[in-house]
Write a sequence for this structure.
């Protein structure tokens, strides 16, 4: 008999994170830490909290961005312009392993909450500064909303159609910065485990997204020509696009080599003579005759309903995908089959949420705690840093805590 092993704990059990955060970049980074077991204390403004709370009311009355980025956290509402509110944050940080902030450029330094200041006072602390453009340079003081950084990083220039550049439909700059902040914290925790020292971590949205621009950036720097915007098509491969089907759907397919073209011609287009036709037999020829190639593929798929088109393409070994809308993704059969959906608590009741994509078999499941109400944990956290009920009442009365 193989002995039954106890499940491993979540890797960040016992780690405490304090975050003065807003919008997406820092909150999404700290949510990853919370999912892996860290205790995350979210410091919010007393006058409405994280402004992402007010973006919309789509999630049962809550903002969709906030629900996505803030599950599993404790919320304390403080006025950091009041020395008493700032003192509370410093007390919280004194017991923390990690501090994260993404305030406007210079604001954290004025409060003494920048990474350099905090780490100089406590060498074991890991402190993360997330900014739009970095701490210095000509852009350091510029406002850095996601769309603006997408433009500055060149993402918009390679996204869209030949005639129309478009931004990504998700906050790509925010997400890029969040994921580098998350991985930066993990790396710093490993280093602290071997050296005893934490240290600052710096991440800028521009530098994070510029890294993600690797292929088009290197193509332009070393090849001389930026990749063309081609919508869902591919600049140097054909056929590679989304094609309408008979029931109103769209199927994207990609033919990566000439063997696949022959299978597509014979088994999907039902035009075996095209397999060796010089106008289509090689990728170079198909790209040269892209309009006619797309016409042939489009005509064949337009006669099939989506399920039939996908089945025929898969039987022929052709890479393909349905062009799903967001509602269809929420019901994706693969996500359902892999049991990737859970419910998390919130002030408006249970809400559906995806398990984080990091899966650790043999260990505890991800901690998907509830989405906090503004200041839900203020009282408990103030008591935890040693405040009496009278002191807490005074802070609330004076508008320093909520």
């Amino acid at each position: 008999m193989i002995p039954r092993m106890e499940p491993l704990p979540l890797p960040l059990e016992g780690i405490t994170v304090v975050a003065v955060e807003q919008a997406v970049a820092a909150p999404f980074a700290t949510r990853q830490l919370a999912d892996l077991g860290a205790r995350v204390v979210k410091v919010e403004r007393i006058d409405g909290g994280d402004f992402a709370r007010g973006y919309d009311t789509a999630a049962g009355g809550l903002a969709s961005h906030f629900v996505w980025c803030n599950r599993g956290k404790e919320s304390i509402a403080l006025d950091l312009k009041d020395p008493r509110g700032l003192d509370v944050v410093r007390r919280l940080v004194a017991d923390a392993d990690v501090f994260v902030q993404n305030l406007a450029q210079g604001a954290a330094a004025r409060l003494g909450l920048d990474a350099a200041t905090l780490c100089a006072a406590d060498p074991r602390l890991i402190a993360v500064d997330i900014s739009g453009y970095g701490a210095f340079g000509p852009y350091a003081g510029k406002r850095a909303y996601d769309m603006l950084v997408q433009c500055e990083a060149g993402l918009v220039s390679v996204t869209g159609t030949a005639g129309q550049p478009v931004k990504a439909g998700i906050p790509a700059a925010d997400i890029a910065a969040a994921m580098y902040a998350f991985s930066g914290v993990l790396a710093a925790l490993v280093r602290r485990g071997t050296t005893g020292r934490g240290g600052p971590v710096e991440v800028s949205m521009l530098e994070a997204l510029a890294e993600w621009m690797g292929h088009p950036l290197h193509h332009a720097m070393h090849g001389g020509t930026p990749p063309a915007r081609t919508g869902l098509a591919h600049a140097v491969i054909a056929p590679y696009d989304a094609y309408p089907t008979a029931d109103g759907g769209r199927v994207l397919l990609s033919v990566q080599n000439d063997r696949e073209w022959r299978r597509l011609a014979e088994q999907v287009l039902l035009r075996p003579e095209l397999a060796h036709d010089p106008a289509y037999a090689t990728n170079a020829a198909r790209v040269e005759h892209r309009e006619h190639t797309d016409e042939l593929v489009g005509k064949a798929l337009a006669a099939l309903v989506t399920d039939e088109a996908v089945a025929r393409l898969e039987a022929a070994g052709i890479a393909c995908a349905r062009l799903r809308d967001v509602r269809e993704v929420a019901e994706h059969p693969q996500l359902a089959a892999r049991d990737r959906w859970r419910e998390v608590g919130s002030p408006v009741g249970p809400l559906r949420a995806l398990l984080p994509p990091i899966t650790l078999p043999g260990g505890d499941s991800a901690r998907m705690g509830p989405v906090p109400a503004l200041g839900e944990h203020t009282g408990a956290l103030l008591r935890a840093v040693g405040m009496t009920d009278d002191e807490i009442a005074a802070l609330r009365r004076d508008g320093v805590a909520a």
Observations:
- The chain has a mean pLDDT of 95.
- The longest helix spans residues 172-195.
- The longest strand covers residues 39-44.
- The CA atoms of residues 267 and 316 lie 6 Å apart.
